[in-house]
Amino acid sequence: MPQTFIRTNPNPTRRISKYVDQEVMYRHHNGVDRGVSPIHGKAFFPTENTPNIVWDGTASPHIIMTEDAYKSASEPRLDPDAVSLWQSRDLPPYPPNNGGEAIEWPWIRDSRINGLGGLDDDYTQNNTPGPTVNGPRMKGTNCRIEGLHVFDLTGYSSSTTRPSGLQHGVAHEEWDNGYNTVLRASATNVITGHRLSTTDSVGQIVDCNGSRDVGVVMSGSSVDLIKSISRRSNGSGIQIEQGGCRLAHATVDDCDIGVNILTIKAHVSQINTSRCRTTDVYTSSSSSGVRITLFNLQAMTEGISVGYQFCTFLCGNIILDDGATGMTLRGGNAANGHDIRGLTFDLTNSPSGTAINVIGPLKNSVIDVEIIGPSGAVGIYLGNGGTSKIGNRNRINVRAHGGIDLDDAIQLPDSWDSSNVIVLNGVTK
Amino acid sequence: MTQSYIATRERNLWDRRTAAQFVIPRYYNGVDYPSGNLFTGTYVSDGNTGAATPTTAIVATEDYDQDITLWQGGSQTNPGWQPALIWPEVHDVKIVGVNAPMQEKFITYYNPDVPYDHDGIVMKGSGMYVDNLYVYGIQGTGGRFVSPDETDDDRDGDAMEFDGRRSVFTKLNGINVLQGFDFDTPGAAIDMIYVAGFREYAVRISGGVQLTNLHTWGGQKIGLEVTGDYNHCTHLYPENSGTGMKISGDYNTFSKIYSLSNWTNCVVIEGDWNSILDFELPSGSSAGSILISGVGAKLINGAVNVTDTPDDPYEVPDVGIILDEGESHYIQGVTLGMYQRTKAIGMEARDTLNSCVIDIIVVGGDVGLDLNYGNINRLGVNNRIHVRHPSSAGQVPATPINLPTTSWHSSNEIYLNGTPQVSP
After folding, report:
1. Is residue A54 included in any domain, yes or no?
2. A183 touches B at CB < 8 Å
3. What residue in B sits closest to A186 (Cα-Cα)?
4. How far apart are CA B252 and CA A314, in angstroms?
5. ipTM topping 0.90
6. Alpha carbon of A20 to those of A43, A45, A112, A183: distances in Å?
7. Separation of alpha carbons B424 and B372, rounded Å
8. Chain A residues close to B29, C-beta within 8 Å
9. Distances (CA, A) of A23 to A61, A67, A428
10. Smallest Cβ distance to A205: which of B19, B189, B411?
């Protein structure tokens, strides 16, 4: 019985369109009318003809670029050379804008880039082989990337931004849309993965497998990213750089830092990390109000490093390698006002590990955790003898078992403020 | 008024194609990567689905039943395996089972005597992308998706151009199948999946999957079956089946679950260290709306309302949560509603509890929390239990906490409405 092979391929994604070096997405698809002509189903091999790649006036060339993408990021009313956000210009009382017209609806779909950049497969790579060449740089409204794979690129994989401007400075017209989206974007062996740089934008299924610096970057504020896998980074797997971002459904492994939070009020939920060499989740010394829920971390060195105050960690499991630390509450205000509940620290294979290391002093915090560990492991370090890491107004409740010495389940100083409530296995300290 | 008709496409997208079997080839042009794809249309087997490959499926990727490598460059640990199959795509496809018109009523498949015959589509590869797939009337598995069984360490050399992309499945629909969709695809992203009318399971996932927006109903056995570890699932609506969800893997996370009218359980947790945040289960069951037999379950912010069935004096009481395993649970902020159900039980500990946190609200019913199930003291050590109930008429359980009649260990904290309970 004959097989029926389906070979015909109507999708031009498959075509090997070599020698497409660089493409500029002009604001007028036909030279006159609005709407950028989309890129659909193309393969780019830039370095086969590197001399043909033009520089865009910035530090490095881009394989795909929206027209005027390199122009000023200032608001058009402040910089007449900038690209406008909206089809119409600002209304009074703002001065009329003489800058570039808006770039509207640049779309890239079902395309791929083979950078042939010479990056090897070793995630510990720490140099920049060859000239820097970046993937798409798109600045406009309603930018869309949907189905883009980037391979072996000595730059970042893509960047989507929108021009600055007043959200409601003008009435909306036909093409206006301040919403940028990145869907199904992946990268393998790059300096940096895809950059979600547009405020209020959305990313879904944005991945990186092999990066030197960062796998996926959330560099716009209020960015929503759901479903991301970032693996094998010499730097950070996923980096959150602006406030109000939400990250959900993420798997990060084999990175130096798993999820690197450099800003305030990031919400992170449903994440797994493993084999991160320095820290699985890091929050900076200015990252207040971070919320992390539903997580499973396999801490090789340090599960969570907390740099600032008023954070929530709810419902998670942290499994420690021997000698690792589950969570560190760093100094200054890093141990202030936290809500840490429903966490299980599994030190079964970490007899010399520590579940929570408080650099302290701990203040105004709730810690309600379970610690499973053998003799020799440390549960919560709150001081040792005369060295106290406890401030005041804390409520600590620990359930410890698995053979851990009860004196080590919570290591306490000689004395502490009476406003603290500390309970270990039902016994108030 | 003159209407202007515009043909949506130049060709009839839904032409029926009939063959013994449709095979998606390894190379799109017979030579080069990536693989081919399956384009829009209706695919029907002529009934000889096993003719092309030993795999009895209407659509199959090439060498589905063979060992193939995960990587474009081949495998160093399995050099004899067939080359990789990379980036096969399926878009806007309808697959109709053999003799499907004769099996229009899905109830046919509830019959355990209906034999397993053929699958709808089977795919093995990496970077698979399936978007907008509809399978109907499959006397087998609607869709079976498999990643090659290799790891990063097995790769022969550096990553190549088509390596490293994960599989993505969006908008999958299955109607009237023995089994719905089976994803053995670590790292896959799955979104918007709907299965109605099934016998064994609607959706089954192994490990490392990110699943959103699921709706299953009208099944005899399991809506969502989670057999592997480290999955993330959210926005789930498994209803009207034997069991809504069954979790046998470990370290999975779930959020935003709504499940009702399952006649055995809404959620079964057999694996360890699984977490559920934000759930609403307006459905009672004598077998437990939630049945936990693994350690370390975390249930936070949810409600189980065992009020959907009449308060029949002859029936076995409905139970909100059954703890068949008693180690290390963290149950916080859960409401167990039993309003006007005088026989209902909020939570039953059928095993000795150790290192558990239980902080619940019970409303009405017979027993709020049973810690003396079978007249056995179910309190081990290091438990912290807080139970509250309203004071309004009909909202006070007959027995808010059924405490053990024998003494319990001093490491247990038990509070009812803020009042500590004293061991006898």
Report:
1. no
2. no
3. B165
4. 15
5. yes
6. 7, 6, 11, 23
7. 13
8. 7, 9, 14
9. 11, 10, 69
10. B189
Residue A44, domain member (yes or no): no
Banded model confidence at residue A10, pLDDT cuts 50, 70, 90:
very low
| CA B83 to each of CA B73, B273, B327, B373: distance values in angstroms, whole numbers, following the listed order | 8, 38, 47, 58
Q: What is the distance of C-alpha B145 from the center of its chain?
A: 15
What are the phi and psi torsion angles at B107 (to 5°)? Answer: -60, -20
Residue A29, Cβ neighbours under 10 Å: how many? 15
CATH number assigned to the domain comprising residue A407: 2.160.20
Single out the residue of A310, A302, A306 nearest to residue A279, CA to CA.
A302
A332 in a structural domain? yes
Task: Express as a percent the part of chain B with pLDDT over 90.
Answer: 67
User: Cβ A270–B34 below 8 Å, yes or no?
Assistant: no
Chain B positions touching A316 (Cβ under 8 A) are: 275
pLDDT for B161: 87
A210 inside 8 A of chain B by CB: yes
Place of tokens 């509450």: A329
Mean pLDDT is highest, among A14-28, A224-238, B87-101, B152-166, for A224-238
Report if residue A191 sits inside a domain. yes
- Whether the CB-CB separation of A42 and A111 falls below 8 Å is answered with yes
| Structural tokens at position B47 | 């009934």
Distance CA A184, CA A50 (A): 27
Chain centroid to Cα A24, Å, comes to 28
Cβ-defined contact of A6 to B24 (cutoff 8 Å): yes
Which residues 6+ apart lie within 8 Å of B287 measured at CB?
A: B264, B265, B319, B322
Q: A383 vs A112, A386, A429, CA distance in Å?
A: 55, 7, 14
* pLDDT one-digit tens code per residue, B136-163: 989 899 999 999 988 877 887 778 889 9
| Interface touch A189/B212, C-beta < 8 Å | no
Q: Is the distance from CB of B178 to CB of B109 less than 8 angstroms? A: yes
In the chain, the amino acid numbered B27 is Y
CB contact under 8 A, B48 and A210: no
Torsion of CA A252, A253, A256, A262, to 10 degrees: 10
CA distances from A231 to A187, A188, A272, B141, B399 (A): 10, 9, 12, 32, 53
Give the 3-state secondary structure percentages of chain B, helix then strand then coil, rounded to 5.
Answer: 5, 45, 50
Question: The domain containing residue A123 runs over which residues?
Answer: 111-163+181-428
Q: At residue A8, does pLDDT exceed 50?
A: no
Task: Provide the number of structural domains found in chain A.
Answer: 1
SS (H, E, C) chain A: CCCEECCCCCCHHHCCCCCCCCEEECCCCCCCCCCCCCEECCEECHHHHHHHCCCCCCCCCECEEECCCCCCCCCCCCCCCCECCCCCCCCCCCCCCCCECCCECCEEEEEEEECCCCCCCCCCCCCCCCCCCECCEEECECCEEEEEEEEEEEEEEEEEECCCCCCCCCCCCCCCCCCCEEEEEEEEEEEEEEEECCCCCEEEEECEEEEEEEEEEECCCCCEEEEEEEEEEEEEEEEECCCCCEEEEEEEEEEEEEEEECCCCCEEEEEEEECCCCEEEEECCCCCCCEEEEEEEEECCEEEEECCCCCEEEEEEEEECCCCEEEEECCHHHHECCEEEEEEEECCCCCCCEEEEECCCEECCEEEEEEECCCCCEEEEEEEECEECECCCCEEEEEEECCCCHHHHEEEECCCCCCCEEEECCEEC
Q: DSSP letter string over B228-293?
A: SSS-EEEEEEE-SSSEEEEE-SSS-EEEEEE----SSEEEEE-SSS-EEEEEEE----TT-SEEE-
